[in-house]
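Re: that chain you flagged

S.,

Sorry for the slow reply, it's been a week of failed gels. I finally had a moment to sit down with the sequence you sent. For the record, here it is as I used it:
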Amino acid sequence: MESDSARSSGRSWILSGTMMRSTAPRRRRLSVLGLLLCCSILTFYTLLLLSLTAIVPSPELSFPGTSLQTSFPVPSQEIPPDYVQIANSTAEKPRRKMQRAPCATVEEMGEAFGHVSWKESLRVRRLIRDHFALHGASRVRELPPEQFCKQGFVIGKASQAGFGNEVYKILTAAALSIMLNRSLIIGQTRGKYPFQNYISYTDHSFTLDEVKHLWRKNDCVGEYGRHLVMRTDDFEKPTETNVLCSNWRKWKQPIIWFKGTTDAVAAQFFLKNIHSQMRKAASTLFGKPGYLQSRPNTFGELMRAVISPSENVQRAVNWTLRGGPDPHIALHMRMLMNKSPKAVKSALSCIQKSLFTNHLQVPRPRVVLVSDTPSLIKEITTKLKEFSEVVHFDYNLFNGKISKGKGKELRQSELRVKDWGSAPRWVAFVDFFLASQAKHAVVSGAQRRVGTTYAQLIAALAAANQLGDNDTTTPKFSFFSSFQSNLLRDGLRNQVGWGHVWNRFAGPLSCPSQPNQCALTPVLAPAWWDGNLQSPIPRDIRRLEQYGVKLSSFGIVDEKRLYSFCKSRKTIVKTIQVTQV
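Prediction finished late last night. Pasting the structure tokens below so you have them in one place:
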């Protein structure tokens, strides 16, 4: 029995051992399959997380060593190292743009601007002051012959066409004189300055006749062999201009004339010049193009230094203010003889927003109203008076000297009535200097394109007027753009033309079908697309190609291609003997 029992227990042990041996591989197979399944699930979720992160990257994350297709290879002898560094820095822009939604409203775009950078503006003010102290007419005309004959000049010539475009020609020349360390000449026509009866010009500048006289007086040709030659460059001829490819600081001609500079863009093209000397000079004056929130009010400070209202225009401004305080807000409506209820409603709402933004707690703020459409003025005045005191220059009631004869020198063209309005041309100068007295904000509204050169310059001069030399607190001044919804049906795509402040935001990053917008606006209109949420329209991409610039849909400049283009093109030099001018 014992043996049977033992045999039985032995068999059971053997059987159980056999069963254990047969089930163990099965368990191991199950555990391996489970592990593989867990790894697969973990891999799937990891890839999903990475794909979502790639679509909307966190601004707190950075990935060293990554590069975009538009970045450059390691610098070679062909391309200057400093130029490659700039190219690689601009190639990072798409990553910043994709941190936000696929598109943005105008108000979201304007959030980057805030108020004018007063510290940078004061720095530029000091730069302008120091420049004219060294290169201004009062000092240069007293130089000994040897030094005077080495002096360089930049001339700004304007006709008596549109106010904004023509003033930008003068201001661009002033900016270029600073970048090149040259003296400023303001051109005359038959012995008269442009808009001479309405604008007074700085005594820091020369006339061309005075320079010719001093050239002969100091015998620059006979004694030093230096002929009075003017080198011209036309910005509006992209295949000929040297704005991106040449080092203008090395030009030897005594006078330079940069033509076709009818807006804020031309002078800022030097920010992308292939020569580091020119880029540095431009960024010193205009700031870095990618930092829109901290750029100076360059053209406002230049205006403050170079032009002022004539005595008769100032008298009309004072008459309109009636001895009262300066206005709080200026509203400019470019309506092209239309009366759009939507535009009026949007502008009124924008004024209310500007009051709130600047924390104006006054019972009835003073609002200056400027428009090219007389019928609109009557309509909007009634609604403005519900919450403000309206200030408007009524030229029909003004009996000053400017309205009796002299203003007739600027005759209103029949073809320009729709563009500039039916009022006499001289009224635009009174309106301009009146609106530039605004203490807190300028609001720009329009029938089609918002932020024209005229409105830009009003805002720029107003901001400069409100900035004291010794301000230690941040001045509260803002520039607003009022868009009614029908202007934004296709986003900002219809804000075409380089003279319009929102053109550099008109590309695919601008959302379609936006409601009414009241957006903070850059006082210095950008010329490039380096800022966040800026993107070009196809028309501008094609136009930039003529300048040798390959521009991506995000506004990135292919710096390597620009350098190659500049090195392969023939330099065009056009000169004029000044005796022929």
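What I noticed first: Residues 369 and 503 are 25 Å apart (CA to CA).

Talk soon,
D.
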